[in-house]
Structures are given as C-alpha cells and as structure tokens.
Design brief:
Helices cover 37% and strands 20% of the residues. It is α/β, with parallel strands linked by helices. The chain has 2 domains: 3-276 and 482-501, Aldehyde Dehydrogenase, Chain A, domain 1 (3-Layer(aba) Sandwich), CATH 3.40.605.10; 281-471, Aldehyde Dehydrogenase, Chain A, domain 2 (3-Layer(aba) Sandwich), CATH 3.40.309.10. It has a 7-stranded mixed β-sheet with strand order 14-17-18-13-12-19-20, with helices on both faces. It has a 6-stranded mixed β-sheet with strand order 9-8-7-10-11-21, with helices on both faces. It has a 3-stranded antiparallel β-sheet with strand order 5-6-22, with no helix packed on it. Helix 4 (100-111) packs across helix 5. The protein starts with 11 loop residues before the first helix and ends with a strand. 55% of the residues are buried. The structure holds adenosine-5'-diphosphate. Adenosine-5'-diphosphate (ADP) is lined by residues 172-174, 199, 201-202, 233-234, 237-238, 241, 253-254, 257, 260-261.
C-alpha cells in the first residue's frame, strides 16, 4: 500500500496489515486464490485504494468447504468438551478487546464510519457476543419427553431430545457492520459446534481478515474450524450458498440477494437463515417526551449514515407535534459534521461505496421530483473522491412515493403526519411495507405503547428508544425482512438440529 493514501496516523498493526498481500484462510493456512485475481478495497472517504484482496472463486469455496467438512466430520471441534469450547470462544472476545484500537481504525478506514463510533459500538458489541455465546456452549440442552403411544399399549418408553450442530455452515455478511456481522455469525456457530466458511462483503473484508489473523496467531482454534474466503458475491458467495456439502447458509444483506440465496440453497435443501432489509417506522405521539423523541428519531435514521437494516427511515409524527419534530430533527441533521471517518471530529462519514452514493443520491432526487419537501440536507458531494451524503429530512411524503416504499440504506428520513390516535390505523400505516424488521414507538402512555407493540408486524419494537442492541436480545425480521433470528439463545436454533431418541424400556 502506498502510505500516502492514509491521511491519518494509524496503529502500527493497521499499517503493517494494510501493506500485506491479503490471502484466503483455509484449513488453518493462509493461501492464494486459485483465480490469481485480486480486487481493490477502497477508502470511502477518498476513493483511493486501501488494500488488495484475493478474489476467491468456486474452487476456493470448494477447498474451504472441504476443510470445514473435514474439521466437522473428524470431531476436531465437537470433540472438544463444551466447557473448553466455551473458553476458546470467550478468548476470542478477549482478543477483540486486546486489539480494539486497530480493529476500530480498520473498520473506519474500510467502511467509512467514524472511528469513535467503531470504537464505542462495533468493537465492544463484537467482543460481547463472543462472551455471551461462550456461555451457551455448555447449555445447549434437550428435553425428556413423556410419551404415550396409543398403538403399543402397556409399553414403556424413555424419550429425550438432543440438539446437535447442524454441520458445516456458510456465512455471507454485508458491509454496514463488517466486524460485528462477522461476530454475530461466527460466535453462535462455534458455540453450537459447527464449522464455518465465512464470506465477507467485497467492499469491507478487512476487519474480518484481521480478526481471523488475530485468532490464527493465538493458535486457539483447531485448523479448519473457521475458514474465510474473500471475493465477489457472484463468484464466492453464490458457490457457497449452492455448495452441496454445506449444511446451512446464514446470510445478512439485501432482500434481493436473500431471495437468490434461498434459490441457491434449494439444491441440497440446506437450512437457511436470513437477516434482510427494512423500512422501519418511528412513531411519535403528542404526549411523548418530545426532545427525547426528536433526538431518538434523528439517531434512528442517521446512526451509521442510515446504513442500518433497522434504520428508522419512515417517521410518523402526530400532527400536533409534526412541525416541532421535523424542525428538531432537521436542526440535528444540519449540525451533524460530515467528513472522513478517521477524523475524530466527524459525526457522519462517507457512504461505503460509489454504488451506494449513486443509489442514495438517486433516491434524494426521486423524492424531490415526486413532490417531497427537503427540510434538511438533500445535498451530496463526491468531488473529493469520497462518497458524502448529508443527513436529509423529507417532509410531505406519502406511502405512494418510491422514497417511502423502498429501502434507501442512507441518511434519508421521510416524515408523514398522522391525525388521530386510532391505533389500528397507525399500525396499518406502519405495517404498510413488505418489510418487518423493527419499529420504535414514542409515548408516555404505557397502554398505547404495548398495544401498538403487539399490532406492529416486526421482529423488534423499541419503546422510547431505537437501535438498542444486546447480545442476549434476538434480532430478525417478519415478512420480507428475513427468516430466523440473530443473537440471544434464539440464534442457536439456526445452528442446531433436534434429534428425538426413544428407548423401549
Ligand atoms: P448490498 O446490496 O447491501 O450491497 P448484498 O446483499 O448485495 O448487499 O451483499 C451482502 C453480501 O452478499 C455480500 O457479502 C455480497 O458479496 C454477497 N452476495 C452478493 N450477491 C450474492 C449472490 N448472488 N450469492 C451469494 N452472495 C452474494
């Protein structure tokens, strides 16, 4: 790497990592891709090349699956007592914390997010999920089940269930929280006893590569348990999703690609879990603590530049408070400092890629042409080579506008007033989307809050808060927002099979 692409002083480990020729990690070894091809990873704040990664293809996926299959079938991972596996998973959490500064810097350089945010959220959430899942390794239990079989009168049986690891899992992750998404995937799969082939997003493979390098250097995981193939979605992701010796594929990304994954998985009917897009409503009642609701609704859409599947991108505010709310959010939007993620004063970094810049700026233009009123932002600028979009608030939007229907995945909120407090009607508006990932409700009326929570068709409902995540809370979607849940003990269902055993006494 040409050091001049880095405008900021970075941790020594980051500098030497970026200077390396990145490889694939298969069977406990760093190997070259059989394609001999590479792809560039860019700094979204400048558009300059940051690193060059191996462009894995179906041959590499095949080798990685073989390594994971061999590690699984030989019992190299499941054969380790659960408490020892738990200790190893816990140590991965410690390794992340010990390398927190460099991982936060890599995440900021690669994804564009502010380095302070990566340090305060992405990195500690990542170590936390390993520690949470470490505890589950010893608690994946079955049940004893009393049975009474009508066609064998007088017979006595002892029946029980065991939960076994599903086997080799392919994990395909997106670019919005690269390290955290790797952690959400790897930690529960290891706890359940699975072996893994991970395919990070081509835009942001660096933190996953470095995490696996750190784990490799520590020597704590047996060879073949965790494999990593970098590459493009069609070249490396698709063969992983369709591979006949992969037992399960776990995907986080767009709904469009999620649908392709399910088709690809059909060949051997591998299990599929999907965490997909969203168009989450933020609903503000007039009795809410309005200042808190304004700050919360702004953060709901502007956190991570709106590049969150659960971003509060549809804002419903009661007409009595609509102007105050939109003015408040607009004021916050206008004050957010947009700049390179590695600048410690930056509050919102660039979007991850030119593709996302074009997509989000296109939505802003379509909102304007469909009659939406821009009350904050509406500006975007890539003249410096970086992909900067300013936090944008649209008022006068309605459910028929493209901007309101489709997932933008950028810092753009569409505000609509509601006039009465008929919960059925509000819930219908909130549910008027093909997605069902999350929602937030802002009110002091506890009865309204709980009633609305029960009517909203989404996997997460936050009340007087938004974007609250914890390793122990399940997260995932209704409708086209996905299948299955990430985190909490719910995620273990993605990585286990239930076996019923019956003994004739
Ligand atoms: P986004 O649209 O937000 O960029 P994607 O859903 O395209 O997100 O990408 C998420 C992940 O899915 C990435 O790792 C990407 O490489 C991968 N991917 C993209 N296309 C495919 C595909 N056809 N099959 C499998 N994985 C894919």
């Amino acid at each position: 790497m040409d050091a001049s692409v880095l405008n900021y002083t970075v941790n020594d480990n980051v500098a030497s990592f970026l200077n390396k020729n990145q490889k694939l990690y298969i069977g406990g070894k760093w190997v070259d891709t059989s394609s001999s091809k590479t792809f560039d990873v860019e700094d979204p704040a400048t558009g300059k090349k940051l690193s060059s990664c191996a462009a894995g293809n179906s041959n590499d996926i095949d080798l990685a699956v073989k390594a994971a299959r061999e590690a699984f079938d030989s019992g190299r991972w499941t054969g380790i007592p659960a408490n020892e596996r738990g200790k190893i998973i816990w140590k991965i959490g410690d390794l992340i914390d010990n390398h927190a500064e460099e991982l936060a810097q890599l995440e900021s350089l690669d994804n564009g997010k502010p380095v302070a945010v990566a340090g305060a959220a992405d990195v500690p959430l990542s170590s936390d999920i390993f520690r949470y899942m470490a505890g589950w390794a010893t608690k994946i239990e079955g049940e004893t089940i009393p049975i009474s079989v009508p066609y064998t009168p007088g017979a006595q049986y002892h029946s029980y269930t065991v939960k076994e690891p599903v086997g080799v899992v392919g994990q395909i992750i997106p670019w919005n929280f690269p390290l955290l998404m790797a952690a959400w995937k790897i930690a529960p799969a290891l706890a359940a006893g699975c072996t893994i082939v991970l395919k990070p997003a081509e835009q942001t493979p660096l933190s996953a590569l470095r995490l696996i390098e750190i784990i490799h250097d520590s020597g704590i995981l047996p060879d073949g348990v965790l494999n990593l193939v970098t590459g493009l979605g069609e070249d490396a992701g698709a063969p992983l999703a369709s591979h006949p010796h992969v037992d399960k594929v776990a995907f986080t990304g767009s709904t469009e690609v999620g649908k392709l994954i399910t088709k690809a998985a059909a060949g051997n009917l591998k299990k599929v879990s999907l965490e997909l897009g969203g168009k989450s409503p933020t609903i503000i009642f007039p009795d809410a603590d309005i200042d808190a609701a304004i700050a919360g609704a702004a953060s709901a859409i502007f956190f991570n530049h709106g590049q969150c599947c659960c971003a509060g991108s549809r804002l419903f505010a009661h007409e009595k408070v609509f102007d105050k709310v939109t003015e408040g959010i607009s004021k916050i939007a206008d004050q957010i400092k947009v700049g390179p993620g590695m600048d410690t004063s930056t509050e919102m970094g660039p979007l991850v890629s030119d593709e996302q810049f074009q997509k989000v700026s296109g939505y802003i233009e379509s909102g304007k042409s469909e009659g939406g009123e821009v009350v904050a932002g509406g500006k975007y600028d890539n003249s410096s080579g970086g992909h900067f979009v300013h936090p944008t608030v649209f008022a006068k939007t309605n459910a028929d506008m493209t901007l309101v229907k489709e997932e933008i995945f950028g810092p753009v909120v569409c505000a609509q007033p509601f006039s009465d407090e008929n919960l059925e009607k509000i819930a219908n508006e909130a549910n008027n989307t093909t997605f069902g990932l999350a929602a937030s409700v802002w009110t002091k009326n506890i009865s309204v809050a709980h009633k609305l929570a029960s009517k909203i068709r989404a996997g997460t409902v936050w009340i007087n808060c938004h974007n609250i995540f914890d390793a122990s809370l399940p997260f995932g979607g209704f409708k086209e927002s996905g299948w299955g849940r990430e985190m909490g003990h719910e995620v273990l269902k993605n990585y286990t099979e239930v076996k019923a055993v019956t003994v004739n006494l």
